[in-house]
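Lest this sound abstract, we think one record worth quoting, the chain in one-letter code, the fold tokenised, each line plainly labelled:

>
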Amino acid sequence: MFLPIDIESVNAPDQLPPGEYDATCLVWSSPNGHDRMMEFRYTRVGKEHHQACDLLFIDSAGNVRLCDFIRMPDDAWRDSFGARADQLVSLLPDDVSTYRLVDEQDLGCLYLQEGA
């Protein structure tokens, strides 16, 4: 949603409330270390949970997949295809549950203006 890559998505930044968002990147690795997932989380300053995220999957062959997610007003998550679930993990491939966190980076702040 915020990465400088165009993808087809039902989600858009203007669906989030305007304001300041903390951006964080979490890097996850498959158990064998061959596949990686970069999770870019966007948390509105003053909120406990992140409101949006971009997921970038890179497999051992170098194939890249990107999907974005947004937290809806009812706290459910919606993926870039329009599928909804109460938990973000329910919208992810099953094998992601076996990935381990290998790095976390603070990316600073992102400012969303009205009508962005």
